[in-house]
Amino acid sequence: MKCILGSFLSYPLKGTAPYIVLILVDCREMESIKDPSIYRNPVILQSEDLANYILETSVYPREPEPLKELREATSNHPWGFIATLPEAGQLMTLLLKLLNPKKTIELGVFTGYSLLLTALNIPDDGKITAIDIDRKTYEVGLPVIKKAGVEHKINFIESPALPILDKLLEDPANEGSFDFAFIDADKENYVNYHERLIKLVKVGGLLVYDNTLWGGTVSWPEDKVPPNKRSGRNAAIEFNKKITKDSRVEFALTSVGDGLNICRRVA
Length: 267
Ligand SMILES: C[S@@+](CC[C@H](N)C(=O)[O-])C[C@H]1O[C@@H](n2cnc3c(N)ncnc32)[C@H](O)[C@@H]1O
Description:
alpha/beta, Rossmann fold, 2 domains, 9 strands
């Protein structure tokens, strides 16, 4: 069924009578534009069909078996929907392959989808400092990580991320020593994480921030955003604004997954 999205007057030829042009769209698509929260996370896309198209034609067919296994194990977890989205993971994989980082850091592990994909794409002697406040969720994915033979690359630290970053900065040897950082912990601290990580990641290294479009709500008027999504939405807006002004990085705010802000340290 078609709905009227809009209309305008058209004058086909000078001097002829105008006629009204109606813009018709599929009603289901229009619903998705009005209320994207009915869909899973990639609501930044026009429709769920488009999100599924990307997943089914490009992401799932090339997803490595261990990642698929971990994603399936995570889908049974009550908070499974907070995991890094596989289409974002696919882009991260490409970035990791291009950068070939040896020393990386990850804030916000959950069951380990992004952690495992990082571990799969760094050299065998590469190391990941992985920080999360909850070891139990990390243990959900740990058997898959072990089976994939990459556990030796991971140093998991159960702690809030901020004090660990501050501790790392106490040792000047750590400054500029990381090649790659993936940030997916509490959004309200992204600005604080950035101030620390910009010193820990080397010039030329990458800092990749997840959820920076927060389900598309960054462009909504605040009063239209469900109360439980406001804090994350406001944090994402503040963070993106800060990055735009930060001359120490060049960056791309991409609409892949839930929004990846990909920053490269240049100063
Ligand atoms: C969106 S999930 C991470 C998803 C993960 N990257 C993946 O691939 O599935 C956010 C994680 O951040 C953790 N977290 C929340 N606040 C934190 C903090 N202050 N420090 C460290 N981790 C935190 C949560 O426990 C949760 O596991």
